[in-house]
């Protein structure tokens, strides 16, 4: 069969006005993972990161009509349910999905992170009776699994029993009991029971992550992969990776539980591409002016770096630079290796520290110290800061990678902003250096050229 260019996934769920959970999280997840998302809205919630102040359910016929109308024209390859709110909506959804027969991921939403009930108590039996048997995959957390099975879940053994019960006694094809709140350790472990076997999906636990919408986005990611035709195990593997990233790089807004960030999955690779291209563009300018740069390349070589967006940049692996650096070569310069993430240590740390003070400063380059360059920079009105490396505290010297952050921190303290230029005149075993900072590599290179040119 010919593969579809646009697999279609449907979310049958409520709206979160805060944009963190519900259909809003689902549609972002669908888009990030590359399917066309369609919607059957069940309920409108007035919600933010810490409370739900209103719920307005749609008529069940309207929910069913949305699914059928989309199906008739666009088609549906797989779907997911989220907030179903009441037993009439549950019956309408179960009946419609059963008739159409697409794979369905059921996220048995009961209570919002903020504590508000999103499923009426009268609807619990309907959820178990009508939704569980039609679930290709059901994704309860500890609390939801306890409600569905009537079991107490205190450890992974209990989670296994609950997952097996949901499949063998209640009729789901596969059940994943999410381990977020079970035996809390270094890893987050989800237990799946499917086809007579248990599976474990592990990821490092993100301690300070954003969790509002986790269940929504995770189940939506599984639905996407099913819509693409992946088998259940592969679908859950991808969804686990996806949700770990979405939690780690959450959207830090609001006073309560901040929302997951499904866009991180595509935003980070896109940014990385843009950053590499920006460094390459600036390297071309260096090559065009290589005779001018030749004299100001230090013995250790120069590097030119750029970090990804400060929302995402954490380590030197989030900063691109020249592998092998830029070195003097004849009367010009040579770009030794390719532009790669993690290729710089010194300039990368300088930028990572600068970004803590001013997130717009994402690029830097080092030049050989020359007092004429410093004089010209001062004349041009740049903010220039001198650092005496002899004052570097012992505890900084002794820790690998601490010197450059110390230089940046000390410079910032002096002028209460990120300077254009930070220089030192060296110390025992430390080459004297000028460091040029700016927003982009092209800006940094033009700044460097403006002081190199006589
Ligand atoms: C409209 C709507 N649907 C679902 C939820 C649940 O999201 P959250 O409270 O973050 O919990 P999980 O996604 O982790 O189950 C909601 N709040 N609103
Ligand atoms: C060796 C060295 N020291 C520098 C300083 O600023 O003190 S810049 C530099 C060269 C560039 O290093 P990288 O490739 O790790 O960014």
TrEMBL record:
* GO terms for cellular component: cytosol
Q: Which InterPro entries match?
A: Aldolase_II/adducin_N_sf, HMP/HMP-P_kinase_dom, PM/HMP-P_kinase-1, Ribokinase-like, ThiN
Q: Which organism is it from?
A: Staphylothermus marinus (strain ATCC 43588 / DSM 3639 / JCM 9404 / F1)
**Pfam families on file:** Phos_pyr_kin, ThiN
Pathway it works in: Cofactor biosynthesis; thiamine diphosphate biosynthesis; thiamine phosphate from 4-amino-2-methyl-5-diphosphomethylpyrimidine and 4-methyl-5-(2-phosphoethyl)-thiazole: step 1/1; Cofactor biosynthesis; thiamine diphosphate biosynthesis; 4-amino-2-methyl-5-diphosphomethylpyrimidine from 5-amino-1-(5-phospho-D-ribosyl)imidazole
Q: What is this protein called?
A: Bifunctional thiamine biosynthesis protein ThiDN
Domain of life from the UniProt record: Archaea
Q: Which residues form a coiled coil?
A: none
What PANTHER family does UniProt report for this protein, alphabetically? HYDROXYMETHYLPYRIMIDINE_PHOSPHOMETHYLPYRIMIDINE KINASE THI20-RELATED, PHOSPHOMETHYLPYRIMIDINE KINASE
Q: List residues of the Pyridoxamine kinase/Phosphomethylpyrimidine kinase domain.
A: 16-261
Concerning its family, UniProt says: In the N-terminal section; belongs to the ThiD family.
């Amino acid at each position: 069969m010919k593969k579809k260019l646009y697999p279609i996934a449907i979310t049958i769920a409520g709206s979160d006005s805060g944009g963190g959970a519900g259909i809003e999280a689902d549609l972002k997840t669908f888009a990030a993972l590359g399917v066309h998302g369609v919607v059957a809205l069940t309920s409108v919630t007035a919600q933010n990161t810490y409370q739900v102040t209103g719920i307005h359910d749609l008529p069940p016929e309207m929910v069913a009509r949305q699914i059928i109308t989309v199906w008739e024209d666009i088609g549906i390859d797989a779907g997911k349910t989220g907030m179903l709110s009441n037993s009439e909506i549950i019956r309408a959804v179960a009946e419609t999905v059963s008739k159409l027969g697409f794979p369905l991921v059921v996220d048995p939403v009961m209570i919002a992170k903020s504590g508000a009930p999103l499923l009426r108590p009268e609807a619990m039996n309907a959820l178990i009776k009508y939704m569980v048997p039609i679930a290709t995959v059901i994704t309860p957390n500890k609390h939801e699994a306890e409600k569905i099975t009537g079991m107490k879940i205190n450890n992974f053994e209990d989670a296994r029993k609950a997952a097996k019960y949901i499949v063998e006694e209640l009729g789901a094809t596969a059940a994943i009991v999410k381990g977020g709140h079970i035996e809390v350790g270094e890893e987050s472990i989800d237990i799946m029971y499917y086809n007579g076997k248990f599976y474990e999906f592990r990821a490092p636990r993100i301690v300070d992550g954003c969790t509002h919408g986790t269940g929504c986005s995770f189940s939506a990611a599984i639905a996407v992969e099913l819509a693409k035709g992946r088998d259940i195990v592969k679908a859950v593997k991808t969804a686990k990776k996806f949700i770990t990233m979405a939690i780690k790089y959450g959207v830090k807004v609001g006073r309560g539980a901040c929302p997951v960030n499904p866009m991180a999955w595509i935003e980070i690779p896109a940014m990385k591409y843009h950053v590499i291209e920006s460094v390459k563009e600036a390297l071309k300018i260096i090559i065009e002016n290589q005779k001018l740069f030749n004299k100001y390349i230090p013995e250790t070589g120069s590097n030119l770096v750029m970090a990804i967006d400060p929302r995402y940049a954490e380590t030197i692996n989030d900063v691109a630079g020249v592998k092998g650096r830029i070195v003097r070569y004849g009367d010009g310069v040579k770009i030794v290796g390719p532009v790669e993430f993690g290729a710089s240590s010194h300039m990368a740390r300088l930028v990572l520290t600068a970004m803590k003070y001013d997130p717009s400063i994402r690029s830097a380059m080092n030049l050989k110290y020359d007092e004429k360059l410093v004089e010209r920079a001062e004349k041009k009105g740049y903010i220039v800061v001198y650092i005496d490396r002899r004052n570097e505290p012992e505890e900084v010297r002794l820790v690998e990678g601490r010197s450059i952050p110390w230089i940046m921190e000390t410079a910032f303290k002096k002028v209460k902003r990120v300077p254009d230029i930070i220089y030192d005149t060296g110390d025992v075993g430390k080459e004297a250096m000028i460091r040029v900072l700016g927003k982009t590599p092209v800006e940094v290179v033009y700044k460097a050229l403006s002081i190199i040119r006589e």
